[in-house]
Amino acid sequence: MNADGRTRLNRTPEWTALAKHREELGEVRLRELFATDPGRGAGYTLQVGDLHIDYSKHLVTDETLRLLRELAAATDVFGLRDAMFRGEKINTTEDRAVLHTALRAPRDAVIEVDGENVVPAVHTVLDRMAGFAERVRSGAWTGHTGKRIRNVVNVGIGGSDLGPAMAYEVLRSYTDRDLTVRFVSNVDGADLHEAVRDLDAAETLFVIASKTFTTIETITNATSARNWLLGELKAGQEAVAKHFVALSTNAGKVADFGIDTANMFEFWDWVGGRYSYDSAIGLSLMIAIGPDRFREMLDGFRTVDEHFRTAPAEANVPLLLGLLGIWYGNFHDAQSHAVLPYSHYLSKFTAYLQQLDMESNGKYVGRDGREVDWQTGPVVWGTPGTNGQHAYYQLIHQGTKLIPADFIGFAEPVAEMSDELKAQHDLLMANFFAQTQALAFGKTPDEVRGEGVPEELVAHKTFKGNHPTTTILARELTPSVLGQLIALYEHKVFVQGAVWNIDSFDQWGVELGKVLAKRVEPALTEGAEVQGLDASTKALVAKYRELRGR
Ligand code: F6P
């Protein structure tokens, strides 16, 4: 029994039943599952919003799914979900509510934190963002010299970068093509250098995105950006107001930096960094795509929020996807999860999901403060198809590891392209369908022999198959569909954290590296004697100084 009154997860009867079921299923073959149930292909599907979800190519039976749902019931996933939507402080280690769902709530919704309805403030900020975005887009907002803004540079890191940077790529065809929008995150000066080297400072707006406004990378880059701008314009501090806006929860630090808080767009401590791009953190994106498209995206998020909140367990897609991940991670020893979008526009999608999933569920301590003795979050990875096919798919097909994968594709190519380029879409999608088929069903030795392959090569050319995949298919990649996809993964991650009994909304693991970096820096710059450096790091620091001629 846990301190919180819960039975240890892996001692619950539901967990034990799943472990037993896993043994009984043994090496169940997808070929057999499909042969014995001709309705499986059409039957193992669900719909949420515009997303068609096919989970037929998973190593599961009806019984597996029933047992997984029982585990979810035993761990009260829906109870925690309801507490989250109600605004309870389910982020217990930081004593915070978890209310990214309030960011896309309708104007008339009532969601209270500490007795205060947060929805009006959400819409006030959205309206301010919309007003500002329109002024930039129309040219009404001008820089210090009176020129209109043509370049927007978002400076932020982690959740203050990955979301808007990803969404900007995804929705490129919806952006104002006359605007240059760039994202700077890395404290490596090369990032800012490359971002501004060909820009006219007089036409450039910096959007400084930082929830805390204390993150060293962002504040360092923002300071360098300010110095670059003032140097280029040969202007004083008064130019900052026209070229810098801030997205933050920390008005004091924003003012300290020299940005007028009238040019600050606020959000709140109940929005986690990695859950924040639909808050003020999305301002650069909103400038690029316009407020209407941004609101369409929020509607997409809301569609999946409502589904997650209300759909019964059997039809609840985030619940299903979360439980499938648990099936592989905890009962098949899978260590990673691939997300493979068949859309070039989703090139940064998996990088975004890495933070969402790995910063949320990369934890070995449970909510009760005890170490878990079950696997938690997987390594999430992947790049857009078909590029991956010519790189690492070999290992997925014929390697020794089980790698469950999500395949995400769209029926329609992006409308903006020429007819010739649109025609390439069928080839892209032929690969999409062929890959999940090959992964699931492989090729038997007899089939290989039937192709006339010499006996000594038969083993090499055999594909065992049985590699599980989820197919997510939508008609078109719109702002709404992007919102739906993100909310789907947010809630999937939530489900897994709830079952594993971990706090998916803190990130203490990031802190140690930050503290140590601060300590090491004087050793690099001044050769200062730093207490507590281990022998390896000390030698490396000395080598670095030698290489730099210090
Ligand atoms: O990397 C740790 C982290 O705290 C992330 O969770 C967060 O998204 C990122 O730093 C940036 O933080 P901030 O928005 O406060 O600059």
Salient structural properties:
550 residues; alpha/beta; Rossmann fold; 5-stranded parallel beta sheet; 47% helix; globular; binds 6-O-phosphono-beta-D-fructofuranose
Overview of the structural elements:
The protein is an alpha/beta fold. 47% of the residues lie in helices and 10% in strands. Helix 1 runs antiparallel to helix 4. The radius of gyration is 25 Å and the shape is globular. 6-O-phosphono-beta-D-fructofuranose binds at residues 157-160, 210-212, 215, 218, 273-274, 359, 507, 510.
Instruction: Name the overall outline.
Output: globular
- Largest beta sheet: what is the strand line-up? 1-2-13-12-10-11
Count of domain modules: 3
Strand content: 5-15%
Largest sheet: 6 strands, mixed
And the CATH topology of the largest domain?
Answer: Rossmann fold
Instruction: Give the uncertain stretches in residue-range form.
Output: none
Number of strands: 13
Mean pLDDT: 96
Distance between the termini: 58 Å
CATH class of the largest domain, please? Answer: Alpha Beta
Number of helices: 23
EC number: 5.3.1.9
Pathway: Carbohydrate degradation; glycolysis; D-glyceraldehyde 3-phosphate and glycerone phosphate from D-glucose: step 2/4; Carbohydrate biosynthesis; gluconeogenesis
Protein name: Glucose-6-phosphate isomerase
Active site: 359 (proton donor), 390, 514
Give the structure's gist in a few sentences.
The protein has 23 helices and 13 strands.
